[in-house]
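Subject: Interface between my chains keeps coming out wrong

I've been trying for a while to get a sensible model of this assembly. When I model each chain on its own everything looks fine, but I need the whole thing in one frame so I can look at the contacts. Pasting all components below, labels as-is. Any help appreciated, I'm running out of ideas.
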Amino acid sequence: MNPVVEVKNLNVTFKGEEGSIFAVNDVSFDLAAGETLALLGESGCGKSVTLKSLMRLHPMHKTQIEGQVLVEGQDVLKMKSKALSEMRGKTVSMVFQEPMLAFDPVFTVGDQIAESVMRHERISYKDARQRALEMLDRVRIPSAAKRLDAYPHEMSGGMRQRAMIALALACKPRVLLADEPTTALDATVQIQVLLLLKELQRELGMSMIFVTHDVGVAIEVADRTAVMYAGRIIEQGPVQAVLSKPWHPYTQGLLGATVHPGMDRNQALPAIPGAPPQLIRRIDECAFAPRCAQASSRCLSPLPSVNTLTPRWTRCIHADVSQA
Amino acid sequence: MSALLRVQDLKKHFPIGKDLFGRPTQVVHAVESVSFEVEKGRTLGIVGESGCGKSTTARLLMHLIEPDEGRISIRGKEFGNIGGRHPVAQLRRQMQMVFQDSYASLNPRLTIEDSIAFGPQIHGVSETLARQQARDLLDRVGLNPSVFIRRYPHELSGGQRQRVNIARALAIKPEIVILDEAVSALDKSVQAQVLNLLSDLKKEFELTYLFISHDLNVVQYISDDVMVMYLGQVVESGPVAQLYENPAHPYTRALLNSVPAQTPGQSKNYIVLEGDPPNPIAPPKGCRFHPRCQFAKAICAEKEPDTVKVSGSHKAACFKLPGSADHQTYIRLQEVSHEPRC
Ligand SMILES: Nc1ncnc2c1ncn2[C@@H]1O[C@H](COP(=O)(O)OP(=O)(O)OP(=O)(O)O)[C@@H](O)[C@H]1O
Ligand SMILES: Nc1ncnc2c1ncn2[C@@H]1O[C@H](COP(=O)(O)OP(=O)(O)OP(=O)(O)O)[C@@H](O)[C@H]1O
Ligand code: SF4
Ligand SMILES: [Mg+2]
Ligand SMILES: [Mg+2]
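Reply #2:
Try treating it as a single job with all components included. I did that and got this:
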């Protein structure tokens, strides 16, 4: 079966007054129907930029995008603006990290969901409002009928996040891009929303790319995971395998730094020393080398390309890949 | 030791909806009789259902909104822009807040450096010094100053923006810092760095934190005391170890149980809370948790449970607790059989 999403050698560069920022480098992955990929990685490594590329949401004049982004066989990067706006929200839909970016502060939440439905389906305002109500109900917004007429700022952070999930799912998309959709939710609502997303996914045969910092959440929702560092995917594979036996030293460091229940409160947390590199040039060597305990001189010359079509791979040349 | 921050019977209702005459038709019971104290140098973790009033409580403490009822004092001083109180501007030097929505709280037209250096300059620090401190702080939150000072908020990732907010709050050198989901947007390694930084600063400057978060593992690590809120009220509070090891309120138990397992292959059996999520417009009578509580009996739907001692300073509000005045009545009642409702 053909994958629903195929990203091939994606590069995203922002042009600014102070030079370029190479935010995404040579990123390739694909996604089958009904499959969920969890994107993990350092803050600022290009997860949101990658997701936004799938809907071409970057500021046009200062962004340079190269590569291919195929959604159901169509290259999003080559779409005309009409095809693009039909695709957005209908074929591919996104839950943003910042709920304020998705909602317009001057319209009510209900009208914004209804408006999005009417843009893609020929239905009346009344029916669209009805759909909005159903969706708010499904994401468990208390007294949904009343909240239909609430403005975004009148909702708590978590409620706004659920309203955004309702907005994203209102047109039953084929692919849902979820950028940390449950970070703002408490644990009881988070688990409800995760189970709900899984249920809707089965129902709609929807594929998901799920950005999260929470290893527990990745384990709960994803089939596969890709770990990003400094604009590249540095490790990819089945979620269980990668998270129980990470190959890349960055993934190992990331999991090691995670706060676990019952940690010694008097000890500093084992954060990875140093900081990620500036993305002001295209980095072809291992970007993690300056912080890596296993680094050798070979890590500092351009790394060989890896076969991204194998089920599990890493971009570390010293990784012990014998233990799967 | 006397408390640095004391909050008594705080209440805030938000009117919503309008009738023909523009009068509100309903009110959201956002915060209802919330009381607590924090001693200097301690960290109070605040957890609870989304929408239960954590951010509203924080905004009340900062006087960004005014309470309907209740008192807030720092070292016995009350603030407010009304007669007899200390001006709110003075409060801002003692208490700062990092907001949940990192984007909404930065001025989009100011560079990162200007944003951080702005506050101290208002409070009389020279521009040169304020800029120097801004750079030092950026460095300490793990953002290379030479890369970031001239950027604008929209040119940063979510986690980078949140660290700018932390730097900005600390720039004023406040005594109390309210951190509303301040580290949730960060990856776990940067989060570890920022948590280490918060611990170091706390020791260095004897800071006091109010740490609002949905990450129960992080709350356990960082807090000395924890307060659990449900639908505008405090349902349980106490020292972190006691509360996590021996949660007394049924809501706290469900909450702690819902945390996904961190180990692959160990899928958990979650106690998914039954029933509708709470409605802050018409909160249930009696114990606000009773429609979803597996231990609820008739009395829970009629009377509000009193807050009683579990042990030491660990307190909770539930009739199941032996200390509750109505505990004997509760024990004698029949269980209400619960039909699964979702
Ligand atoms: N419009 C833009 N102009 C310039 N640089 C940008 C722009 N948008 C993002 N960046 C930069 O690109 C990099 C990748 O950002 P992105 O938002 O994808 O990070 P992220 O992985 O989603 O991080 P987080 O986990 O913190 O949300 C960051 O270093 C960021 O500063
Ligand atoms: N300005 C407002 N007008 C009307 N209702 C409001 C307003 N601000 C907050 N509310 C309501 O008050 C309640 C408490 O909101 P608050 O933001 O304090 O919750 P929270 O505990 O911080 O939740 P979260 O964890 O989701 O951030 C919610 O029901 C919210 O919808
Ligand atoms: S008072 Fe009753 S309803 Fe409330 S938590 Fe206790 S047992 Fe449950
Ligand atoms: Mg992001
Ligand atoms: Mg909040």
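Reply #3:
Confirming on my end. The first strand of chain B starts at residue 5 and ends at 18.
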